[in-house]
Each structure stands twice: as C-alpha cells, then as structure tokens.
Input
Amino acid sequence: MDARDLRAELIAAAVGMLAEPQAVAVPSLRAIARKCQVAPSAVYWHFPSEAELRSAVLEVMYADMVECIEQAISRTPAGADPLVAQAQAYVRWGLAHPGAYQLLFESDDPVPVERAEHGPRLQNRIVELVAAADPGRPLASALLLWSAYHGLVSLRLHKTDWDWELSADEATARIVTAMTATSAGDTRHRRAR
Output
C-alpha cells in the first residue's frame, strides 16, 4: 500500500504555485452580463474579448483616480502641503475602491498609454511636488513615496481586523513628513560636502 501523504503534497503544490504572482481579474463577462440582466452574448457586441473589457475598466478607474488626486491638489488650502493632499487622496481612493485598486496596482494588466491620457500629467505633477523636498532625486523619491502609499492601502484592504491606531490620513501625512524630512536632510548633507 502506498504511504502517500496527499495532504503534504497538496500544500507543497499550492506553495509551488504561489511562487508566481496570482491573477487579480475583472469580474467575468458572464458575471457582468448577469449583473446587467442580459445574455452573455450581449456583452460581446460591445467587448469582443475579456481583454477589451479589462482594458476599458482599467481606463475608467484610472481616470477616476487621477481626477480625484488632481482635485485634491488643486483644492489644497494655503499653507498646507499639496504633497500630503495628493497622498491622502491616493490612499482614500484606494480604500474606497478596493477591487479597482487591486486591478490597477496588484495585477500585471497595464493601463494603455493612449487611454490613460491624464496619467503622465499627474505623474509629472507629483514629481514636481516631491522636487521641493528632494531636488536631487525627485523621481526616485516619488517612487519611494508611492511604494509606501501602496503598502498602506494594500495592508489596510487585506488586514481589516487590525487596529491601525492611526487613521489613513494621519498615516499618510506621517509617511510624507518622514520622507520629505529625510530627503531634505540628505540634500543639506550633500550640499555641506
């Protein structure tokens, strides 16, 4: 008789499969058709493939996120840091749109450049804001800040039972303050040499 430990094999197989990123996907065409109370074939009149639908969804959600962030920057009160306003808008949007956030930033689906027309403008604006704190490496610092924002959103989406102690806005402001203070200190140190 085979003394095979199937339980251990199943766990090992799952662990092996997790060596690769897992898909985060738009709901299936069938599920969307059900939600709209139409036959699945009706979806194909508008979207020849799931890839076309996914691309359209990414475009709409990315444009919405960009608009929310741009509005937050433009409405920053006098004396307030627009970089903090931008960061808080990003985090708020991510927490308010968990499925869309995951699809945009936790999947490997790109937002086509021709469809995300506002994206480069927003990215350039954020790099300009970071440049005030880190003129030597604004792009690197902007990417580092984005990594921190993403971690904040992702953990709060997935670890809903944790007591974070700080609100998302407070945590975001601290991230920006810590990063820009460190960057400003690095700049002063480089200039003193």
Residues 50-74 form the longest helix (25 residues). The CA atoms of residues 127 and 142 lie 6 Å apart.
